[in-house]
Amino acid sequence: FPTETVYGIGADARNEEAVREIYKSKGRPSNNPLICHIASMGAATEIAEFSDDAITIAKAFWPGPLTLVLPLKKGNKIASIVTAGLTTIALRMPAHPIAQNLLKACSFPLAAPSANLSGRITSTRAEHATGYFKNLLILDGGQSDKGIESTILDLSEKPYKILRSGSITQDKLQAYLSIEDKKSSAIKAPGMLSKHYAPNRPLRLNASSALEGELLIGFGVPGEFSLSESGDLDEAARRLFKLLHDADQHPGTKSIAVMPI
Ligand code: AMP
Ligand code: MG
Question: Most buried of 192, 201, 217, 253 (most Cβ within 10 A)?
Fold first, then answer.
């Protein structure tokens, strides 16, 4: 199903068997927990403990492209496979109308990671997900608006940390509370260590021009494979994964190069 960030593959977060199917279909290691999606604060507070800071941040940024890691609440009905056995849970309230309607229509929260095979390029269009998964019901919401995964903010302990960067930046969050600089914090999210978002073809970063056999993804230059002709970061984020999919399948190309961004 579409969200404003990327496409997700969802299952009833209370149903262990259903959630296991997600790990299996994605080839996702079982130590990489899933984000749990909810439509309302009422549903969120049944699952996790919200501190005053957590409520402030949720009020400011939900629904939207921000995931909060919070302590699991006692008596929550979430299958432990969702959190990979952790005592914390990652929660998000998506803003996309289709995601919102889907969540409202379900009587349960949806455990939903990105709709791609583990380690491979993220799906930002329904066609990308169809390429990865057969026999799935796919809700087509067109191109994802943000195009990159949600920012993950860990509020489960102090100092607060950003575990994954996204369109809600540290600056925007710092307006509400202080956050430890990402570079100085140890890696905590199990999913952060593994190879991520990778095309099949080799990819070279910070390339000023294409070498033989390379397809150049540009930035701030004109062209079919330019992330943004005007050098706009939001536009570049929106187009990033689509261009990676297209470059990975482009005939006559052996590898991909990307200009400095
Ligand atoms: P994806 O669903 O593919 O966007 O990946 C979800 C990301 O959230 C992964 O990087 C996970 O490691 C991270 N995550 C999910 N739950 C937790 C948690 N309880 N604590 C820390 N990170 C989490
Ligand atoms: Mg993912």
Answer: 217
Closest CA to 28 of 132, 152, 164, 138: 132
Angle at 117 (CA atoms; ends 136, 246), nearest 5 degrees = 95
Structure tokens, 156: 């489960």
Separation of CA 113 and ligand 1 centre (Å)? 8
Distance CA 159, CA 173 (A): 13
How do residues 202-258 score in pLDDT, each as one tens digit?
999 999 999 999 999 999 999 999 999 999 999 999 999 999 999 999 998 999 999
Q: What is the pLDDT of residues 93-139, one digit of tens each?
A: 999 999 999 999 998 999 999 999 999 999 999 999 999 998 899 99
Token pair recorded at residue 54:
């957590």
Retrieve residue 221's tokens: 């230059």
The whole-angstrom separation of Cα 150 and Cα 152 is: 6
Phi, then psi, of 60 in degrees rounded to 5: -80, -35
Q: Which residues pair with 48 in a beta bridge?
A: 72
Instruction: Please list every protein residue whose CB sits less than 6 Å from any atom of ligand 1.
Output: 32-35, 69, 83, 86, 88-90, 113-114, 149, 152, 163-164, 188-192
